[in-house]
Amino acid sequence: MEPSTIAWAVILSLAPISELRGSIPWSLANGMPVGVAFALCVLANMLVGPIAWLFLSTLHRLLLRWRPYATLFERIVERARRKVHEAVERYGYWGLAIFVAIPLPFTGAWTGALGAWVLGMEVRKSLAAVATGVLIAGVVVTTVAYFGIKAFSIFLKG
Which site from 16, 88, 110, 112 is most exposed, i.e. has the minimal number of CB atoms within 10 Å? Predict the structure, then answer.
């Protein structure tokens, strides 16, 4: 396995757009063993929660003074608040975990961590809920990607 494959898997796992939905299928399609792809991508994506909280409690406060950043951040925050609020209001920290676990655009660890921060949820419980959601999403995405690639490969054999 190439070091660049590992690096790209980690980068895709940490990127807000792709997260596990992009990193696990990409890793499997590039020859990474299923167990390694799952473990590497899930662990990397679990780092998103602490990274987001660290950013929001430090650098974010400085950047808020810059008008373009503040405007963009408000739009992102409002979207996260709307998406996460209902699940959290109804199910608490389990709602946050379920929200993160749904492998659809704008429902991953970044949005979950930001939503928990915006709603003033307790840090440790929020990070545990985000990690639980990432683990569940990892199982779902790995299963779908693995069997999807296997099913598609029958058309590629000559």
Answer: 16
Q: Specify the number of domains making up the chain.
A: 1
**27 Cβ partners below 8 Å, 6+ apart?**
5, 9, 12, 36, 37, 40, 41
DSSP one-letter code for 40: H
Which candidate, 76, 104, 118, places its Cα nearest to that of 19?
104
Please write the tens of the pLDDT for every residue from 76-106: 989 888 889 989 999 999 999 999 999 888 8
- Residue 158 is assigned to a structural domain of this protein: no
Residue found by looking up tokens 């990690």 in the block: 131
User: What is the mean predicted confidence (pLDDT) over 54-66?
Assistant: 92
Q: How far is CA 76 from the centre of its chain?
A: 15
Indicate the pTM of the whole model.
0.90
Instruction: Answer yes or no: is 133 within a domain.
Output: yes
Domain that holds residue 136: 3-153
pLDDT, tens digit (0-9, with 9 covering 90-100), for 7-19: 999 999 999 999 9
Q: What is 49-85 written as a DSSP string? A: HHHHHHHHHTHHHHHTTSHHHHHHHHHHHHHHHHHHH
State residue 158's pLDDT score: 52
